[in-house]
From TrEMBL:
Ligand binding (phosphate): S34, H65, R85, F86, H87, A117, S221
GO cellular component: cytoplasm
Pfam families associated with the record: PNP_UDP_1
Species the sequence originates in: Kryptolebias marmoratus (Mangrove killifish)
Its job: Catalyzes the phosphorolytic breakdown of the N-glycosidic bond in the beta-(deoxy)ribonucleoside molecules, with the formation of the corresponding free purine bases and pentose-1-phosphate. Preferentially acts on 6-oxopurine nucleosides including inosine and guanosine.
Cross-referenced PROSITE patterns: PNP_MTAP_2
Record-listed E.C. numbers: 2.4.2.1
Enzyme class: transferase
Residue numbers binding a purine D-ribonucleoside: E202, N244
Keyword Glycosyltransferase attached: yes
An individual GO BP term: purine ribonucleoside salvage
Listed name of the protein: Purine nucleoside phosphorylase
Keyword entries, A-Z: Glycosyltransferase, Purine salvage, Transferase
C-alpha cells in the first residue's frame, strides 16, 4: 500500500513559509490541467515560486505543467494558481499529489477550482468542448487507492466524508450563465469525469467499459484533489477541457497523444480563461481570511 507519511506540521511549515514570502492571502485556488497553465496569466500583482524552491512541495515532471505557484489578484479576489499538478503515475503517493490542497486550506483558501484535459466517451462531446464536472468516479479509489487512506487527521476533516455533493451546484449554474452571456454556451457540456491511473491511454475494451458505466470524460488526475478538498471543507468547482475522443472502435484509426492534448489546450485557452476569470469575479466569498478551522 502507498503510505502516506504527511503530518499536520508538514502542511503548516509549507503554509507558513509561503505566507512569509508573499503578502497575498488567497481566497481562491486554481489547479491548471495539462496545457492550461495560462490561467495564471490573468492574475495581477503576481508573486511566483518555482515548486523546487517551496519547502515540502513535490515536483512536476510532465510536459505542459510548468511547476510554478503563482499568487495574484483577480477582479478583487486574492488567488493562488498551480501551474502544474502532480499525478499518481509520476510516482507520487496520492497524498503527495494533493499536498498543496491542504496547504491552501491552511492559508485561508475557501474555494478550489480544478481544471484538466480529458478524453470524451459521451457520444455528443467533441474535442474543444468544455465539460463542467457534475460528479466523478474514482477508479483508483474503488481498489483502495485513496488519498484519505491511513490515519485520519481530524483537524482537516472527518474519517468518513460524504462525496455526494462535492461539485458545488451554485458555481456550476453560475458558469452556465456566464457561458451564455459570453456566447460560448454551445461549447459547454456537463458530465461525469472518471479518474484512471494512467500513464497509458485507454485500450478500446477499457474505453467501451467506461462508456457503458456512464463516464462522460476520462483523465488521470483531479479526483484525489477534489476528495481532499471536500474532506477539509473547501467549496469545489471543476472543468474538463475535452482534448480528444477516446477511441471506442477497432475500425477507428485515430489515436491520442500528449502533444495533441496540449494543442487543444492552446486552442481553447482563451475561452477557459474567460470562464474562470468571470467565475472568480462573480463568485461570493465569505471573507474569512485565515479563519479556517484546520489550523
Ligand atoms: O493534469 P491533467 O489531468 O490535465 O493531464 C491529462 C492527463 C495526463 O496527465 C495527460 C495526458 O495527455 O493530460
Amino acid at each position: 500500500m502507498l503510505r502516506l507519511t504527511d503530518n499536520h506540521d508538514e502542511y503548516q511549515t509549507t503554509a507558513d513559509w509561503l505566507m512569509s514570502q508573499t503578502k497575498h492571502r488567497p481566497q481562491v485556488a486554481i489547479i491548471c490541467g495539462s496545457g492550461l497553465g495560462m490561467l495564471a496569466d490573468s492574475l495581477k500583482c503576481q508573486n511566483s515560486f518555482a515548486y523546487s524552491d517551496i519547502p515540502g512541495f513535490p515536483q512536476s515532471t510532465v510536459q505542459g505543467h510548468a511547476g510554478r505557484l503563482v499568487f495574484g489578484d483577480l477582479k478583487g479576489k486574492s488567488c493562488v494558481c498551480m501551474q502544474g499538478r502532480f499525478h499518481m503515475y509520476e510516482g507520487h503517493s496520492l497524498l503527495k499529489t494533493t499536498f498543496p490542497v491542504r496547504v491552501f486550506k491552511l492559508m485561508g483558501v475557501e474555494t478550489l477550482i480544478v481544471t484538466n484535459a480529458a478524453g470524451s466517451l459521451a457520444d455528443g462531446f467533441q474535442p474543444g468542448d468544455i465539460m463542467i464536472i457534475k460528479d466523478h468516479i474514482n477508479f483508483p479509489g474503488l481498489v483502495g487507492l485513496n488519498p484519505l487512506c491511513g490515519p485520519n487527521d481530524e483537524k482537516f476533516g472527518p474519517r468518513f466524508p460524504a462525496m455526494s455533493d462535492c461539485y458545488d451546484k451554485g458555481l456550476r449554474c453560475l458558469v452556465m450563465e456566464i457561458a451564455k452571456q459570453i456566447g460560448v454556451a454551445g461549447l459547454l457540456q456537463e458530465g461525469v469525469y472518471a479518474m484512471v491511473g494512467g500513464p497509458n491511454f485507454e485500450t478500446i475494451a477499457e474505453a467501451r467499459l467506461l462508456h457503458r458505466l456512464g463516464v462522460d470524460a476520462v483523465g488521470m488526475s483531479t479526483v484525489p484533489e477534489v476528495i481532499v478538498a471536500t474532506h477539509c471543507g473547501l467549496r469545489v468547482f471543476g472543468l474538463s477541457l475535452i482534448t480528444n475522443k477516446v477511441v471506442k472502435s477497432y475500425e477507428d484509426s485515430d489515436s491520442v497523444n500528449h502533444d495533441g492534448v496540449l494543442e487543444v489546450g492552446r486552442l481553447r485557452s482563451q475561452t477557459v480563461q474567460q470562464l474562470v476569470t468571470e467565475l472568480i469575479s462573480r463568485m461570493e466569498i465569505n471573507n474569512n481570511e485565515n479563519s479556517n478551522n484546520a489550523s
